[in-house]
Amino acid sequence: MMENLISGFFLFATIDSFVALGIGVFIGVIVGAIPGLTTPMAVALTLPFTFTLPPVTGILLLLGVYKGGIYGGSITAILINAPGTPAASCTVLDGYPMAKKGEAKRALDMALYSSCVADFISNISLILFAGILASFALKFGPAEVFTLIFFSLTIISGVSGSQLLKGMASACLGLLLATVGMDLIYGTNRFVFGQTNLLAGLNFIPVLIGLFAIPEILNFFCKKEIKLKKNPLAGVGATLKDFLKCLKSIIKGSFIGVILGAIPGIGAAPSAFLSYSEARRTSKNPENFGKGEIEGVAAAEAGNNGVAGATMIPLLALGIPGDIITAIILGAFMIHGLRPGPLMFTQNIELIYAIFMGIMLSSIYLFAIGKASIKFISKITDIPHRILFPVVLVLCIFGSYAVNNSTFDIGIMFLMGLLGFGMLKLNIPTAPFLIAFILGPMLEDSFRQSLLISRGSYSIFFSTPICWFFWILTIVIIGMTAWAYTKSKDAAFLKNK
Q1: Fewer CB in a 10 Å sphere around the end CB: N or C, the chain?
Q2: With 70 as the cut, is the pLDDT of residue 188 above it?
Q3: How far is residue 98's CA from residue 242's CA, in Å, rounded to a whole number?
Q4: What are the two backbone dihedrals, phi and then psi, of residue 190, each rounded to the nearest 5 degrees?
Q5: For the residues of 128-166, what is the DSSP string, one character each?
Q6: Sign of the alpha-carbon dihedral angle for 200, 206, 211, 215
Q7: Please, are residues 303 and 256 in contact by the beta-carbon 8 Å criterion?
Q8: Model's pTM, two decimal places?
């Protein structure tokens, strides 16, 4: 083993590997911060540059882009209410309200700290528990995924606040729009109205940008009085007290990310929302979530960054990519004549060790590059809004167009912007819509796949201990929510009396 470790160290310890990893993280942070330029897009565009590089150097370059991109999405989510990546969509809930209160730098700092801690825990889990977690992930079939996603939807009650009924209506609308497009099970069209552009469904990026960024722009320019003075939102950074306050949620969110990341096909967004829900459930001040609670930012970022290393677990241990990005990285392995899986741990163990070393270094790079960038990026909020918002609008249009090079997506963005603006004026929470829109397709696909496997028998959803575990959690959360809602209504009634 020692000989393999030494060989792995010499494979990793080259100037090319150190530089490639740093460049990858830097590119990922920049691309992740631009709405519409997704992390998978950045990794895919970087892939051709790895063809002539040594295997370790090329793979570390892609991993750097991956890890930087997940964190980078939180930057615009906090500053301008436009998540750079789908994984950062949960960070919006408390990050942007903090920025509006003058705490942008504090939110950015906490996002960075929780991202680095979660990334480190995820990397350690990959190194120590790859085999164990990979075998656990294989136990998740469609029925287990359905109960997991169904349980994740219980967060809707939490982010709805006092507007529970409006939140439920918002979630139903999100689920409805998630069904637009071709049914992948039977191949039928749903709600496309003759538009071939809708066959693939509503693209997430234009919907996300339209729902959050456009309403803020419209709301600003619809005001009768436009303030021309600068808006100094950068504020002070997060303190050690802030970090210690959030540490419990960061650690829990990291392990939620590790577990869900090890399950192929789940992704970072559900992990972020589940981590956020758990933090709110156990918080001493759950009513502050969604209004600028720093613990909400920490939990969301811990959840989505905890996935980063864990998605490599099924890839390296079983040769199964955990998401789109690891599928691209799988391609990089194969280009270099390598096939991830059990045989790789016996035939190319020194290369595995070299990748592990690079992955650990990526957490340090993420902290250093992220910390350096915050100092400059937080100055964005010093720009007067009459100048900033038109620039943001241009970026939104560019980001929506860049997904598929389609002007149709720009139209979708503006339509969703009008919908989001209407919801803002009617005081309807948009977070339940977003959660349902993200989780809806996975919920439907796993539900119908389960019924196909069981030939229409619903007993498949109660056939394993994992299913029962999530059903029990769902019942408990729904019961607690109903009790709290009834209690608040009774308190309001007595107050009016």
Answers
A1: C
A2: yes
A3: 14
A4: -130, 125
A5: HHHHHHHHHHTT--HHHHHHHHHHHTTHHHHHTTT-HHH
A6: negative
A7: yes
A8: 0.72
